[in-house]
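Dataset card, provenance and construction

Sequences and ligand SMILES were collected as paired inputs. For each pair, a complete structure of the chain with the small molecule in place was predicted and serialized as structure tokens. The example below shows a pair involving zinc ion. Curators did not alter the output after generation; any descriptive sentences attached to a record were derived from the structure itself.
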Amino acid sequence: MKFIADVMLGKLAKWLRILGYDTLYYHKVDENRLLRDIQDGRILLTRNNRWRNLIPSHQLLFIRKNNPREQIREVIKNLNLCPDKDSILERCIVCNQILNSLPKTAVEGKVPEYIYDTSNKFLCCPRCNRIYWQGSHRDRMLKEIDEILIEQ
Ligand SMILES: [Zn+2]
């Protein structure tokens, strides 16, 4: 399932990307772009009623909650999503690209020394070159995701 997160839903978009879902995010309303992107089957997540007349109802989910954690639960529940833990943190949080594996030698000097010494799996975004690694950050996110999924 692929998504478009409308303006004001940036944090929700980030969480969907963390969970591995292909999610476009719009910083501002662009009707033409949205109508074009919706054509490949994306579901629009929005807080704006104006889209109800323009987008088929099966491709639109109106988000009622304010809190991003409640919003992600709202999406999971309403669309019957089953997030796959193996897909978590395989997509760039910033630009939605699938991350590539990097050999450890390629990140020497580009990540903090402590991280270099203690991590063995490194990933890189092909668009923004941001480097990701497994470690405390990922563990924290997995824990938070567990909490989100349990609370629903
Ligand atoms: Zn990126």
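Derived descriptions for this record:
The longest helix spans residues 136-151.
The mean pLDDT is 90.
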